[in-house]
Amino acid sequence: MCICGWTLPIFQRSAAILLSFVILLAQIAARCSKLGVHCPIRILFAAADTHTFCGSIANTDIPFVVPDTHVEPAIRDLPFIQDAKVRAFVAVPISHFNGEHFGMFCCYSHEPRPDISQRDLATVLMFAKLTVRTLKQHFDTQAEIEMLRSQLAAVIKEDALSIHLQPIVSLSDRRPMAAEALSRFSVHPSLGPQWWFEQAQRSDMQIELEVAAVSKALRHLQQMPERTYLSVNASPLTVSSPQFMEAMRGVPTDRVLVELTEREIILETTPLMQALAVLREKRIGIAIDDVGAGYAGLSTIVSLKPNVLKLDRSLVSQIQSCTVKQSLTKAMVHFATEMDAFLVAEGVETVQEHDALRRMGVRLGQGFYYARPTEAKKATKAMRDFYADRPTLRSVS
């Protein structure tokens, strides 16, 4: 089986698509082998003109089925026919979904094959259609990713990203001790911020979008009461990047917490551990988000040495009615104390949850019960109005 193709920009731009194309051919060869059919694959790339085998099939009246190439001098003298010693073939052009030809499937023999039939042509046509369908999926995905990258670049450039703050409070008197910066998007707001960050990860713009959000959040730190903390979210990939470290320059780092957020298991990679060491040198606090959700195991938490552990909402919800959650939370209180870290209960929504957490020794909380995320300007004003004696985070009782 010979696969001829002339170079297209899509192949020149995307090695992944070309690799997938080759893998597809290998799969076809494997299927043929299981059927007992010898199916060598040859891949050629050439100019799309009538002097090549591919070009001749696509652009001239040469038939798709030729039982003996020596009968037709125009076919016999083609370079590929001579080089590969082709005496018979079934060849089908492969067309782009917009109608443009970009290659060809060809099954050939070194001996004349008078037994070639329309059934053989139908088989090769089936493989050609399968190839087109597979490549179209890649083309569509690539086009979608390019569109996403353009949208994300516009979001960053055109200031379509804003920051809301949600306070982290002392459970004893609901005094705001810190605030978490949360991103909001004016473009397609109904999709929610998580959708945007997922698309950024998918289109390889995760670092750019997260650093843009962190940079914008840090601008609000000076409006917050003195000695309160600002918590910003970043994935391990972003924290390990030079762009993130650059964003940390020139800010009062002793008032910044970096929450490691991850939708998958947090891996203790060398770049991440090196980045965390640099942050500690700058006196930037490290927080582990969603503790209890399974993304960061206890051994990982010990290795990362965080300053703050944030108890996941799944453990906080209805905790007053679940003895298992209560036992786990008490253990986490002890664990955080032994690590000299603070434990923050996330997603507190009811007075019953608040009271239960306080009885178990949790000293800090965050959730709708205390305050919803609010536009940063309004949130910082509310914090200043509430703030009285400016305690440090260590003075929480």
Features:
397 residues; alpha/beta; Beta-Lactamase; TIM Barrel; 2 domains; eight-stranded mixed beta barrel; 16 helices; 14 strands; disordered N terminus; disordered C terminus
Summarize the structure.
This protein has 397 residues and is of the alpha/beta class. It folds into two domains: 2-145, 2-Layer Sandwich (Beta-Lactamase); 159-395, TIM Barrel (Alpha-Beta Barrel). Helix content is 44%, strand content 20%.
- CATH superfamily annotation of the largest domain: EAL domain
Structural class, from secondary structure content?
alpha/beta
* Total domain units: 2
The secondary-structure element order is EHHEHEHHEEHEEHHEHHEHEHEHHEHEEH
Beta strand count: 14
Envelope shape: elongated
Structure description:
The structure is a single chain. The chain is of the alpha/beta class. The protein folds into two domains: 144 residues, 2-Layer Sandwich (Beta-Lactamase), CATH 3.30.450; 237 residues, Alpha-Beta Barrel (TIM Barrel), CATH 3.20.20.450. 44% of the residues lie in helices and 20% in strands. The protein has 16 helices and 14 strands. It has an eight-stranded mixed barrel, surrounded by four helices. A five-stranded mixed β-sheet has the order 2-1-5-4-3, with helices on both faces. Helix 2 packs antiparallel against helix 6 and helix 7 crosses helix 8. It is elongated. The N terminus and C terminus are likely disordered.
